[in-house]
Amino acid sequence: MRVKGQARDGLKETRRAVQALRAGVLEDAGSFPAALTALVQKGADGTGLAIKIRRSGAPYPLREAWEQTLLRVAQEALHNTLKHAQARSFEVGLDYEDASSFRLYLRDDGKGFEVSSWGTEPPPGDSTVSGKIGLRCMRERCRTRGGELSLSSRPGAGTCIEVRVPVRPRLLRAFGRRLLPGRGLFRAGEREARAR
After folding, report:
1. Helices H, strands E: what count in the chain?
2. Do 134 and 79 contact (CB within 8 A), yes or no?
3. Which CATH number does the domain 32-195 belong to among 3.40.50.720, 1.20.120.1770, 3.30.565.10, 2.30.30.60?
4. Is the pLDDT reported for residue 190 higher than 50?
5. Is the dihedral of CA 21, 22, 27, 30 positive or negative?
6. CA-based angle 90:51:56, to the nearest 5?
7. What is the pTM of this model?
8. Closest of 105, 103, 94 to residue 167, by C-alpha
9. Which of 34, 73, 121, 142 is the most exposed place for a label (fewest CB within 10 A)?
10. pLDDT of 193 over the 60 cut
């Protein structure tokens, strides 16, 4: 019982430290896109991996819990790329175009793997075990928040992780934007200008 209690206390302390670190990254950068860019560039520094950051649409804030989750997903994806993929480049895409969901994609040009093995038990000695477990945890974390994480890969063709985050209309209205059915996302007052 005493060992379990110590393990639980150690886990709580670790979680607090990680939470403080994530919050610090967001605070220091000032915005989620800046924090994500800094995290990926710092993680790849000195590795020779070329980093590409792409953004479409005008950024709007996401819930802080989602921003932290997305930072963790990006960190895990970059770690897996550096450890397993033998990639030359890593691309990060932030897509703010869709009015109903934000999309983050993380893509490498590495050796890829057979996606059908993602949900199965790995063979003994499989060096990709830790990466697949980390990805499964990220997928579950996204699912519990109401989002979706998908993965596409095949041997010799690299890997792409995509996360879709539901956007709440109330949050967008607070940011001075509104949703128009079939029209996407507009700043307040843009509807008439776009219709012309």
Report:
1. 6, 7
2. yes
3. 3.30.565.10
4. no
5. positive
6. 85
7. 0.71
8. 103
9. 121
10. no
Q: Contact 154/112 with Cβ under 8 angstroms?
A: yes
Mean pLDDT along residues 67-93: 94
Distances from the Cα of 129 to the Cα of 80, 126, 140, angstroms = 10, 6, 17
Helix (H, G, I), strand (E, B) or coil at 193: helix
Higher pLDDT, 126 or 74: 74
- Quote the distance between the C-alpha of residue 32 and its chain's center: 11
What Cα–Cα distance (Å) separates residue 194 from each residue in 142, 174, 175, 184? 34, 21, 19, 11
pLDDT in tens, 15-56: 554 554 555 667 787 899 999 999 999 999 999 999 999 999
Residues 6+ apart with CB under 8 A from 194: 183, 186
